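Quick check before the chapter quiz. The format below is the same one you will see on the exam, so make sure you can read both the input and the output lines.
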Amino acid sequence: MRREELPLHYAQTLYEMALEEWASWLKSVQQALTENRALADFLASDEASPAEKYQRLQTVVPQGASEKFRRFLGFLLDKGHLPMLPDVTAAFERLMTRGRVQEVAHVTSAVELSEEERERIAALIRRRFGADVDCEFHVDPSLLGGLHIRVGDTVIDGTLASQLERLREQLLSS
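Here is the expected output.
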């Protein structure tokens, strides 16, 4: 992996780890409340104080869960929305799936491309690789002309420099 790609790679990993951690905590609490109907009923009742409910809720929060996660559950509890936890979890998972950082297409050209050219190229790349491809455009005059496109491990080299190199190799091997 090239040095300039590392920050995005690390950020993507960190982003996904954080999301997966919260999803895991949500599922764990949801499962505990599903399995312990008495606790779920207690938390939904008007018989106990908010402080008592919060204390009991904490007994099913996974060890290591962040304080922000605990406060989030407390907020749901205070608003009477804790029974919505299965729906919240499902919505969170949908957002996770939609929000994941996808592939990045590195498009290198010999000259700066116009906005119209960039949009046309991006549309072609998305059609070929999927709608969730982000395009980053770079300029490298040594390419002489054409485009060099890299998406993940796939490279499409349509540069004049590479075509000239292939022609040179063919001439030398003949």
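If your answer matched, good. The chain has two domains: 3-99, 104-173.
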